[in-house]
Amino acid sequence: MTTTTGTLPASFQRFRRLRSSEGLRSLVRETRLDPADFVYPLFVTHGDNVRAEIPSMPGQYHLSLDQLAGEADELRSLRINAVLLFGLPAAKDDEGREAYDPEGIVQRAVRTLKQHAPDLVVITDLCLCEYTSHGHCGVVRDNQVDNDATLPLLARTAVVQAHAGADIVAPSDMMDGRVAAIRDALDESGLVQTPIMAYAAKQASAFYGPFRVAAESAPQFGDRRGYQMDPANAREALLEIEADIAEGADIVMIKPALSNLDIIARAREAFDLPLAAYNVSGEYAMVKAAASAGYLDERLATLEVLTAIKRAGAGIIITYHAKEAVRWLS
Ligand code: PBG
Description:
By secondary structure, the chain is an alpha/beta fold. It has one domain (about 30-330): Aldolase class I (TIM Barrel, Alpha-Beta Barrel). Helix content is about 35%, strand content about 20%. The protein has helices at about 20-25, 70-75, 105-115, 145-165, 180-190, 210-215, 235-245, 260-270, 280-290, 300-310, 320-330; strands at about 40-45, 50-55, 60-65, 80-90, 120-125, 140, 145, 170, 195-200, 250-255, 275-280, 315-320. The strands form two sheets. Strands 1, 2, 3, 4, 5, 8, 9, 10, 11 and 12 form a ten-stranded mixed beta sheet that branches. It has a two-stranded antiparallel sheet with strand order 6-7. Helix 8 links the parallel strand 10 (about 250-255) and strand 11 (about 275-280). The protein is globular and about 80 Å long. The protein starts with about 20 loop residues before the first helix and ends with a helix. It binds ligand PBG. Ligand PBG binds near residues 129 and 224.
């Protein structure tokens, strides 16, 4: 009598043995998400009692300063330890003055958060695009973003943010030499302990679309391809990261995350600094839109995406999904 097994090859691996129960799957799981992996972005705005949902990013809000204590409490209860601040200024001008105004919205938000929740790690996005009337990340001269004229303004912004109490400053402008300029300015101001998280390999990506609605920061002419990276280039991304490390970055970031898992993995192999990945607004909005249309299971899709980013090598994940992910993990 021949049995079913009798017809099988003499030897093959039964991978399914370790997949047969959640207990076994959990025992052999290689990658686990933890609330401490996440950085949650916040958009702060002037006004009172503002909690306005951002249409392009369902579940994310413009928040006035009075909302921040409650936000910090919620994050603490979820064991999310870090936020990344973006500001909506009262007015925009050609040189982005509110970015480096000590009373600018982000500086005020930092002070409010640190006062209420001293243990929360407050990271400040450092860029001019939310503050400039033309929407570019630097000073515009002759219809071009002038790299070297922008550096002193970024350096000044970093010092003002750090003086307000920012735990980490995070330049996202993609000007060449800005990490060195910021490090020098911080050190000269006695802020030697303030770390720099550099948006090191940041591409000119279509996936920032929903954010630009949220931050009202779309360029009013042209695009960002003259300073942000070409998404086609991986070797250049590694050079950008190497340069930022040489200039003094303490943490390096790759952005967007999901379209750059190869670069995350290569950077993890090549460099030993803490590595962050930014799961950007478009990645978030895609999941939200598909879920609300009933095309995918939001919980499973979100956790799969975040797990993949971590598995690729990012130890720090900046994500709008942070709160929901933590709820789903527990
Ligand atoms: C500012 C900045 C941007 C993002 C982070 N910092 C927008 C841009 O470069 O156009 C994008 C974040 C997101 O899409 O979630 N330069």
